[in-house]
Amino acid sequence: MSLTQAEVEHIAQLARLDLTEEEKARYREQLSAILDYAARLRELDTSHITPTASVLAASLPLREDEVRPGLSLQDVLSNAPQAEERQFRVPPVLE
Predict the structure, then answer these.
(1) How many independent structural domains does the chain possess?
(2) Secondary structure E strands in 20-88
(3) pLDDT at residue 14 in the model
(4) Where residue 29 sits, what CATH number does that domain have?
């Protein structure tokens, strides 16, 4: 499908692009090539392919949940820039 110069100008206007004549010619070729490729894809027989919502496997392997001890309060607060009364101290957001 070959786009006309007017169609490219209309697309550029919708996208709020100020294109030079050289850019319009280049984009006309590029957009026409994209539309031609999409038309070729539309011709493929995909009736034997089941519809999918994702290209990933339907079931991803997951590890079993294991109860493991977390960090101690002392270890967590050791990384805090400031701590006070067993809590993180942060600067006030509203004053």
Answers:
(1) 1
(2) 83-84, 87-88
(3) 96
(4) 1.10.20.60
Per-residue pLDDT of the chain (95 residues; tens, 9 = 90+): 789 999 999 999 999 999 999 999 999 999 999 999 999 999 999 889 888 777 776 677 788 899 999 999 999 999 899 999 999 999 888 87
Distances (CA, A) of 34 to 15, 21, 27, 40: 18, 20, 10, 10
Report the candidate in 85, 86, 90, 82 with the shortest Cα–Cα distance to residue 74: 86
Give the Cα separation of 9 and 19 in Å (integer): 8
Range of the domain at 15: 5-42
In a domain, 27, yes or no: yes
- Phi, psi at residue 24, to the nearest 5°? -60, -40
Residue 54 belongs to some domain of the structure = no
User: Does some domain include residue 33?
Assistant: yes
Is residue 2 within 8 Å of 37, Cβ to Cβ?
Answer: no
Q: Is residue 90 part of a domain?
A: no
